[in-house]
Amino acid sequence: MAFAKSNRLPVGAIQCDNTTMSLLKANDYVAKGIRDKMQTQGTLLINITSSAGSGKTTLMQETARRLKDHINMAVLVGDLETERDAIRIREAGIPSTQIVTNGVCHLEAQMILQAFDHLDVGGLDLLFIENVGNLVCPAAFDLGEDFRVTLLASTEGDDKPKKYPRMFLTSELMLISKADLLPYVPFKVDAAVQDAREVNPEIESITVSSTTGEGMDQWCEWLMERVREKKAAHAQALEMA
Ligand SMILES: Nc1nc2c(ncn2[C@@H]2O[C@H](COP(=O)(O)OP(=O)(O)OP(=O)(O)O)[C@@H](O)[C@H]2O)c(=O)[nH]1
Ligand SMILES: [Mg+2]
Hints:
The protein is built from eight helices and nine strands. By secondary structure, it is α/β, with parallel strands linked by helices. The strands form two sheets. Strands 5-4-6-3-7-8-9 form a seven-stranded parallel sheet, with helices on both faces.
């Protein structure tokens, strides 16, 4: 199957009914407001997605430990229940607010907007959104992010980019996580990267382990470069205003 990046839908996909389309249009409207706000204040917004348990929160903790003394950063984290992830992230030394979705399987832009009442996002260089863990529903909802980063854990199997193409089609970066377990599981990094690129030829890939630190420097450099780009664009916009 071919995939078209322009409308973020696989070619030939069945269209949603009118109610669903209205919901997505309303979401896109709010997402645009969030994107404009982040642009105005020069904050990089990154939406972190993956299956449940792929290592998103652990990555947030390890990234915070490496970058918190260099930039202002925070995390909004979505889960169906409990505040556990936000507590873990705060223990790593950065602000974090939990969004409890009460059973909803994804975050929507309106939830992010409401969370801004509980987390001071002014002055942030980098705001992460840790989405609810699944590779299906979160793919359809724009949260106003600059970049979508999807984790694929070595324990999940290398066949996921073709089975859940929309998530990989709409992501700029794939992090192959839990790299320390690669010697013990039947996961071929090359096969996963090839499949992801057949879905989305522009997707970048970094292999990381939050446990051993493998790939963390490359991931943090990728982030810092995006932060610098966002700051430069912000400064240029101010000059032109
Ligand atoms: N071996 C190994 N285990 C990891 C790594 N990263 C996370 N884990 C473990 O994987 C499990 C799930 O990690 P989390 O960070 O909670 O995963 P998550 O994606 O945030 O999970 P949800 O929020 O529930 O979707 C935990 O037991 C972590 O300790 C890693 O790099 N290597
Ligand atoms: Mg988590």
